[in-house]
Specification:
The chain is mainly alpha-helical and about 375 residues long. Helix content is about 60%, strand content about 5%. The protein folds into 2 domains: about 10-285, Fic-like fold; about 305-375, Arc Repressor Mutant, subunit A (Orthogonal Bundle), CATH 1.10.10. The protein has a 3-stranded antiparallel beta sheet. A two-stranded antiparallel sheet has the order 1-2.
């Protein structure tokens, strides 16, 4: 590691003959606001306001949030190397990808748990430990002290590297604890800094401290949404930057390193704000498409002349919560007869609302194709 500027921290030599990076307190950092940063910040704030407002137009806001979180969880876990897709998670039937799916489900549970926990705990080290424990429960990293801060030195670099030639070495355990205590105070400070600039700095600082043996990336990405929700900047947890980080992975890591060793906070913040703008536009577009597909589907159902048309409406509403299903699912959910269920599914297939996922004659799984495509790929209707 080579330090070009001490603006963001310093290298500290450890007796074991390696250097670790000790970040400077964020309260000591003054951000230089130029015209480009002002424009990006204004645009990001505006789009997040639109997104937060549009959430109230959704026919089922909680459902959309749950599905969007699953999409976010897939991308966040893919950054860490999992191979499961959103369809795999929604079907929950791929045994060969079971561990990957469990990791994604844990991510979703951790976000929901984090929101519930806000009623009991402030954003703090204890709070982060609780979420970390949930995040690693039964998945990759479960043998690396879930919910416990690291008690040994970790490092980042290519396979086989050591402390002496690692790309980045976070602070030692005692210095890590000091930095975490300072970060906890910063996260709860009331100041005049924009919330979006502040969370960009918080994310950077958390990843730099690297306080856990595993799961730092996943938790650091969760922290963005959780902190904005905790501070009431966002009413609904609809901002997820994993897709932007994944699509710009090399730049993401490079800019974090440039803050550490060159003090380039402003470049990192601008990148972060560009991510917020891009992802907000994507989420707004997704909400528009979902509202459009709801209108199209329910218009099709309303044209039916069956006496039990309301049952079709209820089944379609169910599909927005369970876009992969079989006849047994409908049977158990609505307490209908087998002939009635068969008739409903056949009609939904005829209308092009659902499609079978295989040519099997029995236990066929059906897919609410257009809806899944929108969530997974942003496909146009």
């Amino acid at each position: 590691m080579k330090l070009y500027s001490n603006r963001a921290g310093e290298l500290r030599h450890v007796q074991s003959d390696y250097d670790c990076f000790v970040p400077k307190s964020l309260r000591e950092v003054e951000i230089k606001i130029d015209d480009e940063l002002i424009d990006l910040l204004s645009n990001a704030n505006r789009l997040l306001g639109i997104l937060d407002g549009m959430a109230t137009t959704l026919p089922d806001r909680d459902l959309f949030i749950a599905m969007y979180v699953e999409k976010e969880a897939v991308v966040s876990s893919q950054i860490e190397g999992t191979q499961a897709s959103l369809s795999d998670v929604l079907q929950k039937q791929s045994s060969e990808k079971r561990k990957d799916i469990e990791e994604i489900v844990n991510y979703v549970h951790s976000l929901n748990y984090g929101i519930e926990l806000m009623d009991k705990l402030p954003i703090s080290i204890r709070y982060l430990k609780e979420i970390h424990k949930e995040l690693l429960k039964g998945v990759r990293g479960e043998n690396k002290n879930p919910g416990e801060l690291r008690h040994s030195q970790n490092w980042i670099g290519p396979m086989g590297c050591t402390l002496s030639n690692a790309t980045f070495v976070p602070p030692t355990v005692d210095l890590m604890q000091e930095a975490l205590n300072d970060l906890e105070l910063y996260m709860n400070d009331a100041d005049n800094l924009s919330s979006l600039i502040k969370i960009a700095l918080i994310h950077y600082q958390f990843e730099t401290i690297h306080p856990f043996l595993d799961g730092n990336g996943r938790l650091g990405r969760l922290l963005i949404t959780l902190w904005l929700k905790y501070t009431k900047y966002l009413q609904y947890p609809l901002l997820y930057l994993s897709l932007f980080f994944k699509q710009n992975r090399m730049e993401y890591y490079s800019l974090l390193m440039d803050v550490r060793f060159k003090g380039k906070y402003e470049e990192w913040i601008k990148f972060f704000l560009k991510g917020i703008i891009e992802i907000s536009l994507d989420a707004i577009d997704t909400i528009n498409k979902i509202n459009k597909i709801k209108d199209i589907v329910f218009n099709s159902i309303n044209k039916l002349t069956y006496k039990n048309k309301n049952t079709y409406v209820n089944v379609v509403d169910y599909l927005f919560r369970h876009p992969f299903f079989n006849s047994k699912d409908i049977l158990e959910e609505f307490k209908l007869t087998k002939p009635t269920v068969s008739k409903i599914i056949a009609e939904l297939v005829k209308l092009g609302i659902v499609v079978p996922t295989s040519n099997k004659q029995r236990n066929v799984v059906y897919k609410f194709e257009k809806y899944v495509d929108i969530l997974e790929n942003g496909t146009e209707l």
